[in-house]
Amino acid sequence: MIAAILLIFVIGYLIGYLAHRKAEVASPGCASAVSTNGDDEIIIQTETVSTLDWSDITGLFKSKLTKDSIEKSLSEFSSDSHQAGSPGDEALGNKVLKRFKDYGMNSWTDEHFVKVQNSPLSGANRVTFRNKTYAESGFLSYSALGSAQGAILYAYYGEMDDLRRLEDLNVNAAGRVLLVRAGKISFAEKVANAASVNASAVLIYLDPADYTLDRDTDLFGHVHLGCGDPYTPGFPSFNHTQFPPVKSSGLPSIPAQTIRASTAATIMGKMGGRDPPRGWADGGLQMYKLGGEDDVASVEVNNVLIEKKIHNVFGVIKGFIDADRYVVIGAQRDAWGPGYAKSTVGTSLLVELARTFTEMINKDGFKPRRSIVFASWSAGEYGAVGATEWLEGYLNSLNMKAFSYISLDGTVRGFNFKASASPMMYDLIQSTLKEVSISRWNSFLCNIYSQVAGSSWEMAVMDPIRMADSAYPFQTFSGIPSVTFRLTSDKEYPFLGTHLDTKMNLENKIFRIGPLVKTAGEIAGQMALRLVHDHLLRLNVEKYSNIIRAQVAQINKEMKFQNWLMSAMGSYSRASRKLTMLIQNSDLQDSEQCRIINDRIMGVEKDLLSPYVSPRESPFRHILLGSGSHTVGALLSHLAAIKEGSASADIDLLKNQFALTTWTIQSCANALAGNVWEMDNQI
Fold this sequence. Notes:
Distance between the termini: 77 Å
Structural class: alpha/beta
Number of helices: 21
Strand content: 15-25%
Number of strands: 21
Helix content: 25-40%
Shape: globular
Largest sheet: 8 strands, mixed
Radius of gyration: 28 Å
């Protein structure tokens, strides 16, 4: 009897032990579903997250993202003609869609009907100077139409500092046709600056000192100071949209035209007036003059406004835990000409990353916690039109679901790493650079971070995110932490915006394309993998504390009643520190706690979008990185105008700006703190 009792006890103990062990194995980060069969028997289906550690994942990823496969994709997606909405653009889009379907991804397209300006029916706009007319085949989309006259004035790069320099020399730019060099700032910013000083028109050329190209090279671009279709600002250009008679405030009021370097040299050689300021004559033309009052030119722009149907193409890899949270990886598909560096490289990387990730999931057991959306955009050359229209159309759907955007546009142009990004992504970028190597001219592999390591690595690598960056609307319109990066050289890649952006010219610049494209793919891929693999999002909310503190310090120098803003800054700093401490002490196996923390992290960028301005009138609502009167930068400019006694200064408007900025920061701090009883609201 004793033996029988012991035997029963041992058997019961073993059964209990094995059952408990099975539960323990299944519990870490698992997703379960309950269903019934025909006999009402309950079946519990359990799906565990990948047990691969980070080194396993990165090793798999790098081994599957091969140069041979990349080069095949580069060949497949190379095209001499794929302007937005053209048959070539649509053919490339269909190729991308087929690839996504071949990989077994859920894929779809959406179409938009957008208005764009193309070159005139005659094929050229015209510039007349000293009784000679120059027909220019290049053009700037969204320019004001018609003719404008005025004496030509050389204004260097057309930056505001350049125009102030002319003002200091008592040179009046009003009514003048400004002749400016391409580079440093976007075409749209040059034209907006010229319009702000009442210039009559703008001519932009490629100076041989900056761009070693044939002097008869035509230049293309756009001058909309914004993103998306400027004739549907703030809302999407779907076929069923009722278009109201409204235009973007970023459309220019004066004509703008690109001219060949040979045309600029001829015009400059016949100009009079005084010599330009020191440094302005360091270009590649034979001579430089500011221009006299009798150097009158006529600019005639006859671009044609047309409606085009464009397609964005999407594929998704669904996550195994938080499938409704996703990172978006996107690439522009169209180009003015071949667009090899601008769009072919990015499109090829997009499909290669999709292939690599799906293989890791299907063959090697990798199971991302969150989803990855792959997007191929059209009409990027007109100002991120396809991407912006998608954001406008699905803004509410993306809210608190899309937690990051990674742009692949123009990623390979040299060997030096540069990036523009949300400050919250700086730590992710830094850790990624430590794990990726680059092959230089001598084929020697060296770690990217070792080239920029030091206390000032951010100054060496990070540039401010600008309106010309393809990630800009994601960051400043939708409040999605975003990054755009590039492997570049000390001198800017000269072929963008021309028909010379070809494979041959890129090879002449960097010698071996494949290895560098693989490096760019590893950077983008490892950032995405880190974001979908970790329990907690690798986004540092404390980074904004330093930025807010620096901005407040500038305001403190000018204002006496800044203690409200100081209080809001303190609230944000405390809330971000508390969240960081919570992250350090959190239980990663507590999926509910992880999701709550991630939601608080995701909300920061969205809470920095000003709720006090209309997305239609001021689409880029981010108060720190956006554009408009609601930004901290605009507040600082207004303070400077008041200090200088400018006629445009308005103290009541300043107080309004100050109050709304303060409360936007305080509201962001309140949301970051979490529950209402945890808010530090002593303001």
